Each structure stands twice: as structure tokens, then as C-alpha cells.
């Protein structure tokens, strides 16, 4: 019974539902291309 409770709580704590992505307006994305400022694209190489 104790092992079942531990497993249940572990799944509740570390399960898929604990990883929620909330997009904040104005917050840049760390991995997305949309996070690059447009000014950098206009610079000559």
C-alpha cells in the first residue's frame, strides 16, 4: 500500500501534467527562430 501511494504521488509530481507551457506576451523563446530580433536579419555580412 505504501509503495502504491509513493508511485501515485511520484506520477502526480513528475507526470506530464506538471510540465505546462504558458506563453507570456513579450517573452522571447529560448529555442525558437521567432526569438531572433528582426534587426539582425537586416545586417550585411
From TrEMBL:
InterPro entries xref list: Transposase_TnpC_homeodom
Domain Transposase TnpC homeodomain as annotated: residue spans: 2-41
Native species: Streptococcus macedonicus (Streptococcus gallolyticus macedonicus)
Stated name of the protein: Transposase TnpC homeodomain domain-containing protein
